[in-house]
Amino acid sequence: MTSFTFSVAEEPTSEEIEKGRVLFAGETDFLKGVVAMDGMPPADRLEVCFAGRSNVGKSSLINALTGRKALARTSNTPGRTQEINFFTLAESHYLVDLPGYGFAEAPVAIVQKWQRLLKAYLSGRQTLRRAFVLIDSRHGVKAVDEEILSLLNKSAVTFQVVLTKTDKLKKGELEKVIAQVSTALQKHPAAFPEIVLTSSEKGLGIPTLRHIIGTLV
Ligand SMILES: Nc1nc2c(ncn2[C@@H]2O[C@H](COP(=O)(O)OP(=O)(O)O)[C@@H](O)[C@H]2O)c(=O)[nH]1
Ligand SMILES: [Mg+2]
């Protein structure tokens, strides 16, 4: 079996940071929440999506990227949103907030509906350039994450792991979780070999992520 090496995404240069900043300084708006494929907006621009278990910090990350405090609603009540939420970024991008998973109390029917919609979205969206899979840096890759990782791997969408809430960790702990994530990603060849470390609270890694999104074509 081929072995992949995962590294931490490099700090962008000041020029690259500026480009990312300019992109994300563009107007951002909530476009629509989608519950079925026929509700998707036209695939007429570059698209990235964000996936992660409930409470991982997905809404906070989208808010931090766009500099909008309440664009994607953040809340302490996990598992509420079962819609795929589309946000416009400038005239050129869609940012897509996928429904959170791993909410133990969700009824089976809801989970199945989520899986069907997600599968259809991930395999059928021509303009989807990258999926960011958010992993809580305190927990690493858990069994609940494996399903989305496998789904992404099968759908041939390049995905990149973003560690969230790194402000909650000490340096030694961060290195351990990076190693754990790298090991867990070995069996998923569609994984992009760079991990992004972020803290929405402290703004860490936000310019890096903006830069990464800005370089996708
Ligand atoms: N310390 C810290 N807390 C965070 C960070 N990002 C999110 N949170 C908290 O984690 C909880 C869940 O965040 P939210 O963005 O709603 O998660 P979502 O369910 O994945 O959309 C909230 O209480 C946030 O304030 C972060 O970078 N650092
Ligand atoms: Mg959310």
From TrEMBL:
MF-aspect GO terms: GTP binding; metal ion binding
Example GO biological process: division septum assembly
Cellular component GO terms, alphabetical: cytosol
Assigned keywords, A-Z: Cell cycle, Cell division, GTP-binding, Magnesium, Metal-binding, Nucleotide-binding, Septation
Domain EngB-type G: 44-217
Origin: domain of life: Bacteria
A Pfam family hit: MMR_HSR1
Cofactor(s) for this UniProt protein: Mg(2+)
InterPro entries, sorted: G_ENGB_dom, GTP-bd, GTP-bd_ribosome_bio_YsxC, P-loop_NTPase
Keyword Nucleotide-binding listed: yes
Similarity remark: Belongs to the TRAFAC class TrmE-Era-EngA-EngB-Septin-like GTPase superfamily. EngB GTPase family.
Function in brief: Necessary for normal cell division and for the maintenance of normal septation.
NCBIfam families, per the entry: GTPase_YsxC
Protein name according to UniProt: Probable GTP-binding protein EngB
The species this protein was found in: Litoreibacter albidus
